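#struct-pred

JT: dropping the chains for the assembly here, can someone run the whole complex?
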Amino acid sequence: MGRWRNKALTEYLENEIQWIGKPNYASAFPLPSPGRVPPLPSRKKLSSPTIRSRFQRMIMEVQDSVCGALEALDGAGNFKEDAWTRPGGGGGISRVLQDGHVFEKAGVNVSVVYGVMPPEAYRAAKAAVTDQKPGPVLHPKNPFSPTLHFNYRYFETDAPNDAPGAPRQWWFGGGTDLTPSYIFEEDVKHFHSIQKGACDKFDPSFYPRFKKWCDNYFYIKHRDERRGLGGIFFDDLNDYDQEMLLLFATECANSVVPVYIPIVEKRKDTAFNERHKAWQQLRRGRYVEFNLVYDRGTTFGLKTGGRIESILVSLPLTARWEYDHKPEEGSEEWKLLDACRNPKEWV
Amino acid sequence: MGRWRNKALTEYLENEIQWIGKPNYASAFPLPSPGRVPPLPSRKKLSSPTIRSRFQRMIMEVQDSVCGALEALDGAGNFKEDAWTRPGGGGGISRVLQDGHVFEKAGVNVSVVYGVMPPEAYRAAKAAVTDQKPGPVLHPKNPFSPTLHFNYRYFETDAPNDAPGAPRQWWFGGGTDLTPSYIFEEDVKHFHSIQKGACDKFDPSFYPRFKKWCDNYFYIKHRDERRGLGGIFFDDLNDYDQEMLLLFATECANSVVPVYIPIVEKRKDTAFNERHKAWQQLRRGRYVEFNLVYDRGTTFGLKTGGRIESILVSLPLTARWEYDHKPEEGSEEWKLLDACRNPKEWV
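RK: done, full complex below.
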C-alpha cells in the first residue's frame, strides 16, 4: 500500500495541515476504514494531535484501506491518483478505479479545505455552507452487487482575527448508504446490522435517528422514492463530547469495508441477463438524478466552481432513462422500488 | 397520420381549448413544423380564431408533421402516445419513439396549461414562472447524427376577475438548437442558415440576437461549455405585432423538419467505432447535466411536481461519465469541445 502516498503528496498534505493551524475554518470530507494502515511519514511531524489532525490522519488511512480492499477484490483494476489544490485553500487526493473486473467506477477522495469566513458566516457557522463534496461512490458492474456511498467529514472554525477570544465551533458529519438494484434481504440486513452495532457502541439513539435521517436525505422528491435502501446519515453533530464523536466517526468509517466488501464478494459473479442490466442502468439514472438535483455537496460544488471532476466522480460510468418505465407488480424490480418508496426497518 | 389524434384525445384537447376561454393564464409549449397537416376534427368547433387557438392548432399540426417525418426516417420505430391531465388545469399529449432503427429516443410533446394566478403574479406576469417544460428532444443512435431540441410556446393572461378592465399580457418564446457529437461544417451551416432565413423574413436583428441568446442559455456553467452548437432561442417576446410574432413562431416551428431531417438522413448510416460511441455517450452525459442542473423548464418542473415522465423524456436513453476525460488536442472530439467552449458564427 506504500505506493499510495508518495513523497510529494505527503508533503503537500502535511503542509496543508501545518498551515491549517491558523486559518478561520477547515473542513475535511472523506472516507475512513480499518485494515492495514501504512506508516504515514507525516506521523512524526504532527506535533500536537488535535482532533483536526487526528481526523485528517484517520480519513487518509481509511482511503488507503478502502482502496486496498477494493483493488484486492477487483483483481484487475487499479486506482489512479490525482492530487489537486483548491484556489481558496486546501486540496485533496482523488483516487479513481475505472472499468475494472468487478467495479465499473469507484472514486475514493480525501480533501482538506480551509479559508477565511466572513464574520456573519462565522457567527452562524453551522448555517454557513461548508464546501462539502459528495463522498466516495463505488459502482460495481454486476447488477446484483449494490452501489455504496460514504462520506465522513469534520468541520472546525478558529476565532476570527478581529475577535481572538470568540468561541471555536466544530462539528462532525457523515454516513454510509447502500443502493442495490435488487434486494437480497441477508445483504441489506448485514449492512444495516453492522452499522447499528457501530452506532450502539456510542449511543442507543444514534442508529434509529441516523437511519431515519438517511432515509430522509436520499429522497428523490420528484419520484417520491429514495435512491436506495439507506444506512446512516448525520450532520452538524456537536452536542456530544468531541473525543467521543471522533471515535464514533472513526468507528463508522472503519465499518465501510466490513459492511460492503462481503456483499460484493458474494454477488460479483452472479449470472445476470439483459433485463437485470437494464434495470441496474435505470437505477443508475435515478442516482444521477439525485446527485445532480438534490445532493447538497454536488449542487453546491457545481454552483461554486469546485473541482468538477472530483464532484462528478460520484456519477456512474453509464446510466439509462426509459420513458415511463414501470416494473410489473410483484416482480423483483418492483420490490426494490417498493422498498425505496416505503423505507423498511432491516434490523 | 390520422391515427395520431384519436377521437378521445381530440375531445380532450378541444375541451381544454374551449374551457380556456375564461382562465387567467394559458401557456403552451410544443413543437411546430410544416408538411402534411391532417384535417383536425377540432377545426370547425373553434369559433373565434384567437391567437391562442391558432397557436394551439399550429403546435398540434407541428407535432403531427414532426412525428410523421421522424417515423418515415426511422423506418422501424413507432411513436407511442400518452395523454395526460394536469391537476391545476390543462394537459398534454406526449409521443415517444424509443429504440427505433435511427432514433434511440425521440419525445415530441404538446401541452396546454392554464390556471389562476395570484394578483401579484399577474401584475409582474413576465416575471411569474410559467409552467414551462423542456421541449421535444430527438436523440439518434449514430454518433455522427446530432441531437435536436426545440420548444415553442405562447403565454397569455386574461384580466383578473376582480379587475375586468386590466390589460391582457402575452408573449412568445421558443427556439431550436443542435447538439452534435462531431462537427460536419456543412451540417451546422445548413442548420444555422435555414434558421437565419426564417428569422430574416421578419427582422434582420432576430437571428444575431436569438443566436447569441441561445449560446448563453444552453451554457453548462460548471464545465464552461455549451451543451451543443446552438441555434436560436427567444423568450418574453411581445414588443412586436402579435400577429407577426405568431407568424414568426410558426415559421420557426415549420423549420424544424427542414433544418434537421436532411442531416440525420445523411449521417444515420455512417460507420462508427467504439471510440465514437463512447464520445457520443459522454456528450449525452453533458446533456443530462444541463437538463437536470440548469434547464429552467426541467428544474422548475421537478420542483413543482409536474408530470415527471414528460419532463424527463428529454433525457437520453443512455449516458456516460468518465473521470477526467480530456480529448487529445486537435482531435475531432477536441474540435467539438472547442466549438462548445467558444461559440462560432456559422453563417
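JT: nice. Confidence is low (pLDDT under 50) at residues 1-44 of chain B. DSSP finds eleven helices and eleven strands in chain B.
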